[in-house]
Amino acid sequence: MSSDPTSSTSVPGEADSKRSSAGRSDAPVDRRGQPLRLLSIHAHPDDEASKGAGAVRKYVDDGIAATLVCCTGGEAGDILNPAMDRPGIAENLPAIRMVELGRSAQIIGFDRVELLGYSDSGMEGTEANAHPGNFANAPFDEAVGRLVAILRRERPQVVITYGDDQQGYPHPDHLRVHDISIVAWHAAGDPDRFPEAGPPWTPSTLYYSAWARARFVAMHQGFLDAGLESPFDQKWFDRPSHDHLITTQVDVREHYAARSGALKAHATPVSYTHLTLPTISPV
Ligand SMILES: [Zn+2]
Prior knowledge:
Blueprint: E1 9-10, E2 37-42, H1 47-50, H2 53-61, E3 65-72, H3 93-108, E4 112-118, H4 127-130, H5 140-154, E5 158-162, H6 172-187, E6 205-209, H7 213-225, H8 234-238, H9 256-265, H10 272-276
Zinc ion (ZN) binds at residues 43-44, 47, 171, 174.
């Protein structure tokens, strides 16, 4: 079994420790006396903005610290914003995406950003997909070991990751996020697994983030009722519904600006359409 707990890195200087209670004497704690922290695992820079950003912001505003784990650098992402499709962007895309990630994390309120250290696996059939150093091709136990080291260091009570059914968007990195999360979740508290990755820590609750069909159907109708073009095309409606599996909903109406702001911080991969469409609040 191989693992390299030292290989993950963090994005320096972008954390917003003032907004969270991390390190403060009045930080809320669990029954073990550990400060409350949630940890959210994502595949690429921008996923943290499009999946669960409002919920993270809500808990940060409630005084709970938040860690973002980003597994890849998003190097294979397309430049979907015509304003960013200019000289100096494509050749510096990895560095630009890290700056965008730092800004987005700050807006959402993550006080720590941990990079798992892999390159983007791209979609099947692409050049990036064949690269031996990408996330999907990396040794499975190595990736699990890196995540276990982060879980043991960050000591979150709540972990949020991707679900087991990703038919709607089966990107190899998203599938891998789920697979390593489940194994790392079970291994983190087991002293016999990855003993070099730090003292064991058992988180309390694991959530899968999900796209609620009812939500985007309501938003689609909201755009139409307002006489606007809806950004939700047929491929959204072809996605299988997971609504019957949803156990927990968080009211993010007060925190929706964090999601919009974080998405806009990702100026290269977020399409021009998303940047210019009027914002409507979720119903
Ligand atoms: Zn992604």
